[in-house]
Amino acid sequence: MSTATQKTESPAPPPAEGSPSVGTLLLQGLRSNMRQYGMLVALALIIVIFQIWSDDILLRPLNVTNLVQQNGYILILAIGMMIVIIAGHIDLSVGSLVAFIGAAAGVMMIKHDMPWGLAVVLCLLLGAAAGAWQGFWIAYIGIPSFIVTLAGMLAFRGGTQILLDGQSLSPFPDGFEKMSTGFIPEMGPYTQYHNPTMVIGLVVCAAAVWQEWRARQQRAAYELDVVPLGLFFVKCAAIVAAVMAFTMTLSSWHGAPYGLLILAVLFVLFSFVMRNTVVGRHVYALGGNQPAAKLSGVRDKRVTFMVFVNMGVLAALAGLVFAARLGSATPSAGLNFELEAIAAAFIGGASASGGVGTVLGAIIGGLVLGVLNNGMSLVGIGTDYQQVIKGLVLLAAVGFDVWNKRKVGS
């Protein structure tokens, strides 16, 4: 009896705990970043397909530069839209605000001969005021963002028609147009590549590797799982190879355009804000669970208000970049830009319920759409079929998000 009791009360010794296997770490990493990695793989496949289909035109330096310049304003909007969606809202007015800011810039610079630097500052302030107006009704009055921004879409579009009187204004000053169409000037001795662009690429590589190493050290400090050192070096090598391939492609033409520098600054700034600041964590908390966020001390009204002010500033910047590239202020500017920005955010990993998404994801989603647009145009696919294909891509991305949530919750 005592022997039986002793056997019952003596559990089998637990298996020795060891470090997770390489396969386990890879699987965990893929699961935690499934949307982002999935879109990266999708972007790579799309590039390979259209590079072959277009007879190697897609990745030619001239076309890559055109890709950057043609999609810069959409990527700027996508960054702001991603933050809005993370906070649990939507903004349908950004396309019309792009047109309104472009019209205001045209009136200031062309009709009234205002210095373009001053006009740019005033337009950014005007965008902030437009975002504050909408944010006030959403945050403090409690009207749903869908309704407020739908009203804004109509109002800003009408304001554009009033400012321009139904006509286009051109040309903009050369200095202003270079903000979108200009390139970093060449410096240093003659080489086969654009020297300043190559230096920037090397700096980006060093910064990216340092950031990866820093993130690894932080995870190790908190005794979290980290990938084996060999895989870490492989990942860093892949990042460096991708950055340098892109850098050398741009350097073999005219170098990096100013629009790319603007986008890079925004990417670094907002990535840091959303990942490393209290404001960024509050935005995620508000979109993930608003009642819990309020109980935790998050000032939900103020955060929502600032999110829409930020969206207004970014929409104004996108409007200026678009007007500079177009060379004129037109009443039809910005048509469907809000749909492109929303699609880029969702394709890049945003969740329809809020609280999920990254700035990098918005860039990836925008690039997926940009490469699709450019590639389909190169191979002669009509705009009607292009809309169908982009709609299916958006539906697949959101459907994958819903499926992934159900799988995790089951």
How would you summarize this macromolecular structure in one to three sentences?
The protein is mainly α. The chain contains 17 helices and no strands. The protein starts with a helix and ends with a helix.
Coarse structural class? mainly alpha
Helix content: over 70%
Instruction: Determine the mean pLDDT.
Output: 89
Termini Cα gap: 44 Å
The amount of beta strand, in percent, is under 5%
Task: Please state the oligomeric state of the protein chains shown.
Answer: single chain
> What is the rounded Rg?
24 Å
Strand count, sense and closure of the main sheet? none
Shape: globular
Low-confidence stretches: 1-18
Number of strands: 0
Number of helices: 17
Helix-strand string:
HHHHHHHHHHHHHHHHH
Function: Part of the binding-protein-dependent transport system for D-xylose. Probably responsible for the translocation of the substrate across the membrane.
Region (Disordered): 1-20
Protein name: Xylose transport system permease protein XylH
Subcellular location: Cell membrane
Write the layout of secondary structure elements.
Blueprint: H1 2-9, H2 22-32, H3 34-53, H4 61-86, H5 94-111, H6 116-141, H7 145-164, H8 174-181, H9 195-221, H10 229-251, H11 258-276, H12 278-288, H13 290-295, H14 300-326, H15 337-347, H16 359-378, H17 383-409
Helix pairs in contact: 3-16, 4-11, 4-14, 4-15, 4-16, 5-6, 5-7, 5-14, 6-7, 6-14, 8-14, 9-10, 11-12, 12-14, 15-16, 15-17
Transmembrane segments: 37-53, 73-102, 114-131, 137-156, 226-250, 256-274, 303-324, 344-372
Region (Disordered): 1-20
Function: Part of the binding-protein-dependent transport system for D-xylose. Probably responsible for the translocation of the substrate across the membrane.
